[in-house]
Amino acid sequence: MRLEKEDIQFIDTYLENSDVVYADIRMEMVDHVASDIENRMEAGDTRSFYEVFKTYMVENKAQLLKDNKQFLKSADKKIWKIFLKAFLSPLTLLLFLICCIGFYVLYLNSDIETFRLIISYVPLIWLSGFLLTYVVYHKVNNLKRFSVVERLAFPFLVFYQLPNLVFNFSHQTKDFKTILWIIGFVSLILTIKILLVVISINLFKSYEKRFKNIA
Amino acid sequence: MSNSKLYKGSLTTIILKLLNEHDKMYGYEITQKVKELTKGELKITEGALYPALHKLEAEGLLDVEVAKVDNRLRKYYKLTETGTKETVNKLEELADYIKTMQALVNPKLA
Prior knowledge:
The complex is a heterodimer of chains A (215) and B (110). With 215 residues, chain A is mainly alpha-helical. Chain A folds into two domains: 5-75; 89-212. Helices cover 84% and strands 0% of the residues of chain A. With 110 residues, chain B is an alpha+beta fold. Chain B has one domain (5-105): Arc Repressor Mutant, subunit A (Orthogonal Bundle), CATH 1.10.10. Chain B is 58% helix and 16% strand. In chain B, strand 2 and strand 3 (72-79) form a beta hairpin. In chain B, helix 2 (11-21) crosses helix 5. The relative contact order of chain B is 0.16.
């Protein structure tokens, strides 16, 4: 006994309306629910799909929604693992040094106000980077919402807010040592943001490959 | 199953062992296989299974393949090379554990 396409769509829509918004998480849940319903029908349940589905949901909906939270926790763990791996690579150190040198050269060749203005825009520029990546892959390529990619928005926001805190404490300083600390800090933030954009693009690509090559 | 807590620590080993014996498996298939092999004594809930599968995937022990089956997408899990090696370690650990427990509860058999 195999469920019809409309039945599968019904399960998918039901789960989406129950806040299982990410396509990758929902996909696995839909298959699990559909397999169990098929199993029940094969075992002799002669009721219609809708009736068996209703029984299944009465028995398992609470657990399914709990699972959704577990899925999201796994997605968050996955993000941090990917990020840490990328962050600890020698290329990241090189990128950080390039950023430091770039900002130092900027400091030497511009007045303090211009320098301050430019570095204050760094977080905003890279938040836009993530948003642009997201819009291009999500809207233009018409991809569904995927858990790990969207959960990346949180670290992006954290690293967007952090520099603002530092600027608030140090925006009047002209002390050279403090300027060097600011350069180091902004370079680190910029490095992290570049890493996050690269990670986002790679994740989008892997999802695209995984889901679009299916006949 | 009367005391599923006793099995909780072995879930990873159970999953790895099953995947070692099959080329690839999907979540529901794993739950059914365990139920069948243990004659219904052990029922793995999806709440325990999927987080464990995702953890193993994140650790690089499992690889994932998505295929269209029966009008829907299905996520298959299979062992990576590291996963295959880890399965051997986990099974050895479990065998040692069983031996130790046997020595404790039934010294004559140990």
